[in-house]
Design a protein that fits this description.
Blueprint lengths: L6 E3 H5 L6 H20 L2 E2 L8 E4 L4 E3 L6 E2 L44 H17 L9 H10 L11 H10 L15
Antiparallel strand pairs: 1-3, 2-5, 3-4
């Protein structure tokens, strides 16, 4: 069974430019709630992007496409690092899983451990795009974008975003997972 949804993807909503801050904050909060529920169940999405966030006609926010999701073994059902015996069955070592521009730095490393904080990095990328109107890490080539994720910080130079929102974005987009929000509920 699949649910019939009426509305549009977040990608379609942001094509016209940045969303009003209250609307973007509301969408981000709903996505964080959805991620929190998934993380409590030990599921990491690994491909969060505007195309995988759906805005229903009735005002609900839905997370879509858990095709790259990964079940992790955790203690106390909290987001945690993958246990050695909990390897994903749908991936091969050395293969990047996700969408360029939304993948956390640890997803780009062949031995990088992925947990819920990787999804929070992606949510930071999505929130940045909702409020600024451009991708947080963009380049003319996919390799350039990967390099930007690993080495650069998003540009807030000419942004008129409130300082508190900039702080939230910087916290989500920190290169090191231990410098990000530690779970979606914190965000």
């Amino acid at each position: 069974l699949m649910e019939l949804l009426e509305g549009r993807t977040l990608r379609e909503a942001i094509k016209a430019g940045p969303l009003p801050l209250p609307k973007a904050a509301g969408i981000a909060a709903e996505v964080a709630r959805g991620l929190s529920a998934a993380h409590r169940a030990g599921i990491i999405h690994r491909d969060l992007k505007p195309e995988n966030i759906f805005l229903t006609s009735g005002g609900q926010v839905k997370l879509l496409d858990f095709g790259l999701a990964k079940k992790i073994v955790t203690q106390n059902n909290s987001p945690g690092r993958e246990e050695p015996e909990a390897r994903p069955t749908s991936t091969n070592a050395g293969v990047l899983m996700g969408t360029v521009g939304y993948m956390a730095p640890e997803q780009l490393q062949t031995d990088g451990e992925v947990d819920g904080r990787s999804d929070l990095f992606a949510l930071g990328c999505v929130l940045y795009e909702m409020v600024v109107g451009t991708k947080a890490f963009a380049s003319e080539t996919p390799m350039g974008t990967l390099h930007a994720i690993l080495t650069q910080d998003p540009d807030f130079g000419r942004s008129e975003l409130p300082a508190a929102l900039q702080d939230v974005l910087r916290h989500c987009l920190a290169k090191a997972p231990d410098q990000r929000f530690q779970d979606a509920q914190d965000l």
